[in-house]
Predict the 3D structure of the following.
Amino acid sequence: MATLGNPTNTIEVLQKYNFNFQKKFGQNFLIDTHILEKIIDSAGITKEDCILEIGPGIGTMTQYLAESAREVIAVEIDKALIPILGDTLSVYDNVTVINDDILKVDINRIVEEHNGGRPVKVVANLPYYITTPIIMGLFEQNVPIESITIMVQKEVAERMQVGPGTKDYGALSLAVQYYASAKIVANVPPNCFIPKPNVGSAVIRLTRYEKPPVEVQDEKFMFAVIRAAFNQRRKTLVNALTNASNIQISKEKILETLESMELSPTIRGEALTLAQFAQLSDKLAG
């Protein structure tokens, strides 16, 4: 089987199966061997590793992963790609393809079955429209993960790394920084894909913390507070939290809490650090 990391072989496979790109699945297939090697290298994959690949497409990266890892579980939503994957991955006996939606699949069960519940490494070329729910889902379901190495829209990669006070800072930045240390390992121009996306991409590696950098009594409540703060980011934090249907805390209590933290009553959520959000949610829940 020819490797798919170059345009000619990719186009051949797509033509052989009369494959049509599905806009609703945000399909852009990588056609650059250097980037593929960089992803494998950045993810630090060894023969000990079990890899969860999200959205294998026609199996371009899956081939590279199968060469480097002990086992690969690839979850693909588009059933039109399943016969193609059967073909492009036919020489590998260490790949399992699951035709399902990653947001609906029981990832913990997959990890239990294929890796005895030990941490897996996640590698993905993620569709841009669904990046945030996938990453949040992996973290919030407490899936045993060592690292996540993903191709995402460049501005999303930057958002994962930024701190308070910038326009890109938001719920995703805080979630990533609570669960993992983030490092952009490559910038990827549009011409590395078929079809070409309209935006630049970046590969980012998120290395899961053994324990989060801040302590908080109730993780779920803290993220509810964070989401409420950024749902209406132009509003003051007090108003954003008072308006949030899932937080049921009086304006007086929120104002008192901000005062006890020596924060201005007109402060916005985007000014608070992760540690301040942890402190705020502990006080509000108390």
Residues 228 and 244 are 6 Å apart (CA to CA).
